[in-house]
Each structure stands twice: as C-alpha cells, then as structure tokens.
Amino acid sequence: MPAVGLIRRSPRTLSGRLLKHASQRSLATVAPPKLTIGIRREDSARIWERRCPLTPDAVQELVQQDGVDVLVQPCDRRVFPVDHFLKAGAKLHPTLEPAHIIIGIKETPLNELITAPVPAPQPSESLVHRTYLMFSHTIKGQPYNMPLLSRFLGENNSQPSTLPRLIDYELLSGSDGKRTVGFGWFAGVAGALESLSALAHAHLEIGVASPFLHAPRPHTHPSIPSLRATLRAIGQRISEDGTPKPLGAFVIGLTGNGQVSQGVLSILEELPIVKVGVKDLPSLVGNPETDLRKVYLVHASPEDYLSRMDGGQYNRSHYYQNPSLYKSDFATKVAPYLTLFLNGVGWLPGFPRLMTNEDLTVALNRAAEVGPARFGTIGDISCDIEGGLEFMPRASTLSEPVFKHRPAFLPSHLPAVHITSVDILPTSLPLDASNHFSGVLIPYLRALVREYRSVRGSASEEKQCQYEEALERATVAKGGQLVGKHKWLREPVEKWRSAAASSTALAMASSTGPAPVENTVHGKKNVLMLGSGMVAGPAVQEICKRGDVELVVASNSIDEAKGLTRHLPNAHARFLGVDDSEEMARLIAQADIVVSLLPVPLHPSVAELCIRLGKDMVTASYISPAMRALHGRAESSGVLLLNEIGLDPGIDHCSAHSLLSRLRSERKRVLSFTSFCGGLPAPDVVSSTQGDDVPLGYKFSWSPRGVLSAALNGARFKLGGKVSRTIIPSEDILRKYFPDVPVPEGAALKFEGIANRDSFPYVETYGLGDSGKLRTVLRGTLRYPGFSDLMDAFKTIGLLSLSSPPSPSQIPFTGWTDLTRFALQHRLGTSVPGDHDSVRAALFDLLQGRCEEENVEKVIGSLMWLGIMPPRPSLPRVDNSPLSVSPSPATAPIDLFAQVLAHKLRYLPGERDMVVLSHEIVVVPDHALDGAHVEESAEVHTSTLITFGSSRASAMATCVGLPVAFASLAILDGRSTATGLGLESGVRGPTEVPSVWSAVLGRLEEAGVGMKERICKVPGRNMSYGEGVMEGKLSLGFFGSS
After folding, report:
1. Region at 96 (left for phi over 0; alpha for psi -120 to 50; beta for the rest)
2. Is the whole model's pTM more than 0.85, yes or no?
3. pLDDT value at position 321?
4. Beta carbons within 8 Å of 522's beta carbon, 6+ residues apart
C-alpha cells in the first residue's frame, strides 16, 4: 500500500490554463510541482513563542541536497530573521498553500489550517494529502483542542479521504520507546533559572538579599553559554562570600530523571554544588557549622520518598503494576529542608501524588520548625496543574513567571508559597532550543520526503526504516481517520461536534448573528484602520468603546490585526496587501472614515482614494509635500484629510494652540514661546538595566534610524532676541545643545535639550505675531544628560555616516566588534589595526579636540558595552557580538549602528517608557511693550504632560493612539450633524479644525493624559533670566553668562 494517498482529479478541477493547453500534452510534459515544505509562523496570541522547527542551515541542506522547495511564513518574532531563510534558499509565502508538509511548534490556529489536498510532487494528475507536524495537544483528548483534531477527521465511518495527516512530535520515539524530539532539557535549564530568580525575590520579602538577585532570566540572554557565564560568576561569589547566614544551608531539591532534570543538573553545574542524599538533610540543615560557601543539591529518586503501605520495600516494577499500594513521604522526608524545590517529575491519575493538599500543610509546619525560609519557593517545571502537586492551581507566564499562592485550606499561621509554573519554558531559550530541535527533526523530515516521492527505505537501510516506522507510530490521524491506539479519540471529537452543532442551531434561532466583516453595519458608523503597528492598540480600544461604531483593522500582518480585535465584538481583522489598491478601495468605500497608521510615504495614495470616494481621513504624521499638494482637490470634494494628530505632532499642537487662544482672548502678547518634547525610558529603566547606566540614556521601541538621522539635521531658532547666533549647522547640532531644560512638573528629573530643526514656521502655525518682536521661539527634543556628548562622539567617529564605503573589500570587517574600526577607517580614509589598543589610540586622536580624556574613556566604555569594539587584551576572548546576524561591509555605518542599537537598547519585558511634553509661554499685556510699562509684571505660563507606560500600552503608543481615536470619533460625530460642527475640508492640521482639537484635549483629560498648567508672574526687568523660567535657563546654558 503506498504511504501517501492519491486521488484522481476530474478535468473540471483543472485550471483554465491547463484546459487551454490540454491539446499540447502529447507534445510536451508538464513538470510536476516540486515537493514543498512549509514553515509556519506560530499563533500571534503566543507572544513569547519564538522557536522555529528548522534552522536556516537545515533549510539550506533541504533545498540544496534534498531538492525540495521550502516556504516560510513571514514572522518578525521568530528567533531566526526571515532574511536568513531567504539566503538559505527559502521563499516567503503568506499562507503556505502550496506546501505538502507543514511544520510548526505548537498547534496550528484553526483559521490557518489548510485541509485541501495538494498536487502530487510526481508526474501525474493526482492530488495528495498534506502532512502537519506539531505538538497538537490532542492525544489525551484535551477538550480545548477537539476542534483542531476534528478538522483532520471525516464523518464517522466515512471512506478514506485526502484530509491532512497529523503527526505529533510528542509521539516520535526510538525503538526503546523513549521520546526523540522535544524540548525537555531546555525546560529544565530555563525552569531552574526562573526559579532561582523567583527565590531571590521571595527572600527579599523576608529582608534577605541573596546572590541570586542577579540570577539571569533565560530570555534576557542570547544563548545558554551567556547564561552559564553569568551563573558561574554568581557561583564564584558564593564560593568566596557564602550564602546569607539567615538562610542557613542553601539546599536545592530536584525530582525527576528525564530530560527536564538533566537540564536542571546541567545548568546548576555552574554553582559550587555539593550533592547530598535525602538521609543527610536533617543533619546538614541542623548543623550551624555547615559550610555556606556551597550550594547543596538533593536529587530525590522515587525510592527516597515512596513507601509501600504494606511495609514492603520499594520496587520499580511493583510500583508501576500496583501504584495504589504506595504513598509519598516527600512532605516529611524532603520538603521541609529545602530552600528551593524544583519539580521535574510527571504524574498520572491512579498514581500517588508527590504532595497532596494536606501534605502542603504538613510540610510548611515542619519547615517552620526546621528554620527560616524553608520550602517557601517551588519551581514546578512539569507545570502539571493540580497534578503531582495537588495545590498547584495554575500555569504562570514568562511575562509574570511567579505568583504567591495561599490555598484556602492552609491554616492562618502558615505562609503563602511562591510558585513558578511556566508552561512554555523552552521558548525563553529560542535559539538553543530551535538549533537542537531542528537537528533531531531533520531525519524524520527526510523520511517523510521519501514517502511523498514513494521511495521506501530498503532492508539494508535499517536506520531509514526506523524513521519511517517512527512516523507511523507518531501519526494521530490520516486519510480522515484516527490511527491505531488513537481511535478512542473519536468519542470526544463527536461529543464536541454535537455540542458545536447544538450551539450553532441555538444561535441561529435566537439571533441573526454578527454582520459579516465584508459588509458595513447599517445604522452604525464604520471606521477603517489601515495598519496594526505599535500605536494601534490604544486607538482600537478607544474606538471600540463606542457601541455605535464598527471597526475594521486592515493590515498585511493578519496576526497583529487579529490580536488587536480578538476580544472586541465590534472590531474585525482583515488582511490587506500593501499593493492591493483594489481591495483597499473596496474597504474605504464601505467606511465612514479612514484612519491611516501606515508609513508616511503611503499616506498620499490612501488620501487619493479617500478623495475619489468622498471619505474623511486621519493620520498622526507630519504633512508631507505630497500630501499638501492634495489640498485643493480634497477641499473641492468636501473631504477632510486631518494630519499631525499624534503626540509630536499632535498633542503638542493642540495644547499649545489651546493655551495661546486663551491668552490672545485675554489681550496678551507673546514674548517667548518655548516647547520641548521627548519619548524616553522611565528613569528606573535607564539606571537598572544590566546593573549599569545605559549608553545614551535611551531605549528604542521603533527603528533607531530616525533618532540617528535627526542628529544629522541643522536647526534655526530665536532665543533671548538673538538670531544670528542661533543658526546651528548640522555638524554642530549635538555640540550646541541645552545642558539644563527645566520641566515644571518634573523637577526631580534632569534633561538636556536639542534644537529641533527650523522653529520659525511655527510663528505662523501658532499665530505668535511678528517674529521680529518675539524674543524667543524654540522647539526642541528632550534627552537625558549625556546623550548629546556621546552621540556627538559616535557621529565624529563615523558611526552616523550615510555613505557606504566605495570599496568595501578594502576595509576588513570580520564581525560586530569591528564596527568601530570600520567606521573609523571609513571616516579617516586610512587603515586602523584591529587590536583594542590601536582602535583606542585612533579614538583618542580623533576625539581629543572635542572631548576631555575622561569623556573619551566613557565613549570607549560605551562602545565596549555595545559590543562594537575589540575587547581589551587583558580580558578573556569572548564573543561579545551584539547580534547573531553578520554585518555587511557594503552597508552604510549608520544602518549598521542602527541594527546594534535596536538590539542592545531595546525595551525588555516589564520595562516602561515615559513621555514628557512641556510648553513655556511668556506674555505681557498688549500695552506693556511701548517702553512706559517695562516694570509691569510679565506672566510665565507653562503647560506640561508627563506620563508613563503601563502593562497595557507604552506611553508613546497611548499618546499617539488616543489622539488619533478621539479625532476620528469627533469627525464622525461632526459629520452626523446638520451643520457638521464647523468641520473644514482639505488637507489640515489639528489647529485648523477647532472642534477637533478641543474635543481631543477634553478626551485626553478624561483619560488621564491631560496637560497641567501653571502661571507665575515675573518682574519685567527679570523676565529673560528669571529663576525658574525655561527661557532664561536655556539662554544661560546656551550663551553663557556673557
């Protein structure tokens, strides 16, 4: 019987093209499709899932040696960048529809499962089934995945079909029955590290700081060798200084003998481990002379804690045959003596639990007698909910790996326990785990390829036959039928199908159901959002709070769009290709208003469609020349194209305009307008990352290219009445900065400022009057102190150069640690040796005229921190490369540097950002400028916003997304009235549409993102340099006391 089922295609199923050329088949042979393997992207809801079943190297082997095509679904979260797969010979494909074999890690989402057959990779007109490989989580009859298994099965007792074959990695095993494909070892490594980190925080709660406060969380390092190095340093410290005396002997307990426990044992080798037996625990913990410069490990086996209730001795065979005759004494023999417990043993119903609920009470009572901090932290690496540890209530996540649990049955005098129970631990080690998984999977994949090609392993090819037989054993369903021992799963599948059918019938009888996404919802206002990037989340949430609004999020990343809309009944996700203008026009035609969050260059083409279809449009971007050119057409069509309604531009415009409008109504004349804005890491993030100050005091959530490019711009402004001295060429923009920018609501925060391009156009935008009568007009960007000096040094070195080397091959570039030398050679036009001392000398020569010697040392330290400078010869030669991808010498230094910063200065989970916006406006009464009233008091008005990111959204996303949402809703509401509330048409900024900017400010205030205003009076003679006035401090810092 052939391994792969075929089905003859009817001529009616042939494409028109094939029918057209059918007459030519006697003259030419039509090449069959190549055997194709598809690598699936993982479910977007699994935000930490970065593993990949094949490495780019494995893909290259399959393409070049096995002659198969490999398709890869685009995914920016995967541990291997898409470009690596493309270089290996793979091709991008959005759905993997042509693939014969589709592989992923976790379950395939139902909406992405392709059950239709595929053309056979042989000269025939046949269709063959697909094959899916995954951890399906169906083989135990898990109810939540019966819908998935159902898709692989035909109706009960139906004939074989070409429904896909399902192979579960969990069932792949050798002839000895042991699993051959999995991540258990990596779960052990990651679980041990997560638990050590959780333990340290638990000890802080009792007033003790342990060396494991610095235990690395797995996802914070690029690879296991890096994690080992950090843990080894902790171990060295323990060897020298010992563990804290209040904790007593530091004892780690471990259960299990599989790959999980082997991973734990492997990573713990970096500590000064002394292995002890269960029988040694009482004396070890009770002895005040126990050496605290060691970490004690007890690896408890079943014979250590399982006892026969009939008094007999433990016997493994007897235990598995008669599990009900055994009980666990772990709660009395082991648990009370442990500082940390790592559980790596599984559990099945019918077998004794390692610890019952009652056992927890027993263990904690005994632990309190033994000494402090015993059995307070548990790392349940098995993550078996209410299983071996009956009191373990739930899984935790990598975002929040530890939780405190105090079961209701626990007596009040006993403490809660800290539990880590992450169910996807291996994904926190995506690189190492994926490399291992790919290596063990490849032989099975090749065996599957041979099956599709109808090439069976011969008797002499025993190993090939073993892989083919293993694939058969691991098959859950094939040909629409359950296979072998899995036939029992038909019952839970049919049970689910019956329940689903009943629910559907009930829903149809009681409701007309939601309107299809393709159609507009009559009686409701329809919003189309183009794009699903970083700022979309707050905008989507806010728009969907309105029950009278239906939202469609259209994106070329359907996973992102689904993630944004999944739990919102009035929001829907649609796939939209960037170049699909026909589909975009159809979606725009169905909308009442369009929100474009696309890249700036795409806005004009969207605006063209909006004008043609008569739809208003909102963007957060600056008005580009191409957009401005559409003003006349938009105005004549009665269409409003509202731009600049984010943060900067956006909130800055609206808040400044609001304050200035009020001052003008009070007949005040502006002397000075100063405004600074910045998106920054929260102060605690900058000072705490990796124990050192972060270079530049900055982090990037978007591409650093924009920040680096801004350092190449010049600036023009007026400050203190001086214009000639305030034109800054681009080469000096980072040298002539403002060392102290006071922010009224952030007195404890220190900022420096950089002038932001040309401030003079804002004289007209804000209606500030005659620029000749203004003393100051200045807009700038906020940064933490030290940013400008360090960025200027980077610029001087050549790291911000926009041009690629004319002859890249003439400048040796072996890795990321060569980037500084590469930039120097490109900048100087001369060769620089590659050793640390030579690069250091070149840096001193180049920077000597611009930096003090101490500052040059700081620059070198930052370059070392970033991993782009050769290491010192006195240090061990280690791989300090910041990225796994190799740099290209044909790339401009600024783009290489941007890649480094995007990686090294990215936001880590749990880190929050901050937005700061501050205006200062100095005004006097209209009549106070005629010379007769110079002693009359001036007024200094300030308007300030300081907000921080949260677990829901970053501060930047909030400050861009909310104004977009509020403006869109204001326009929708305005259009629904007879008068339109004075809405303008044409290409506009927010200050040109009063009903919009006032609505946005009001809603921001309600959302807790409002501006705080202050006013103070300053005597006229002091108003330029009065204490506490931003203008005065900026003038003093920029021009000096002269």
Report:
1. left
2. no
3. 79
4. none
